[in-house]
Specification:
Helix content is 78%, strand content 0%. By secondary structure, the chain is mainly α. It is elongated and about 70 Å long. About 5% of the residues have low confidence.
Amino acid sequence: LRLYQQGDLPNAFGLCSRLDQRIPGQPVVLELFAAVALALGEIDQACMKLQEQVKLQKKNASAHSNLSMALYAAGRIPEALKQAQKAIKLEPGLAQAHNNLANAYKRLGDLNRASTAYRRSLALGVNDPRVTMNLSETLYQQGNLEEAAKLAEEAVSKAPAFAPALKNLGAIYLQQGRTEEAQAILKKALALDPSDLDARANMAMLKLSLFEPEDAQRYLEEVLVANPRHAGALVNLGIIREDQARRMAAKECYAAAIDSDPGMSAAYTNLARLLFEEGREQEARHLLKQALQESAGTDPIYLDWASYEELANNLTQARELLNKI
């Protein structure tokens, strides 16, 4: 435990492994082993040890909650949801379990249940800016920009140097048309974490809204150097390429965005429009039908670069264009 608290994770992990071999089936050792494994990014190992613990302590709400966090980290979202529900059934006032439940619902796209669970977690006394930020993001995705902004501001006030909270606030300000405030906030987020690609993509959107395409292009190219498959950046770069009368390059951007994220409705709509203008009506119709089909399964987490209002507008455009052709 002392090694873990001191940050000496490799030696802590080795000691936990030896203890687990010498005295197997000890819940305290399993819990610590899992915590160290999670800190080291050994997610599968953490899941395995916590599963052993809950078998030994079926009525330990905290153990179920911890397992829920580990399963979420492993991308096993339905299992994470189930463990959070078990933890809450055992201990209804366990705030962390409600937060785990909210995270799972959010990832599964059930935003109403997610926001309810986040509110419950905060009401139970969680004072973590990440929870406030997550509730803000969920409300933003539901279109409740006013409350989302207030919560985002609260998260930033709790943790002024927490880059994800600043990025979230900047994105909300951008959607509210508060461009000067958005620009100042996003600059702070990037100063704290220059590697944040979504913050750069949001800054590019802001520059586009200010009719500064050269700056927007610079931000987008920086994003795409780091991640050539960033769908939001590809769509926005495609828009710039259209403005530059580089239709072929624009079509390549939209096609790459679709390949990266099949739920990116704007890419389908924009590419279909270009094809329709070229007289390729059959291909355009096929793309628009795909846009409407794929949008039903769009993962909300992929939409942190754009609002749900934009998604709705893209789908409306798709339907209108499909009817036209």
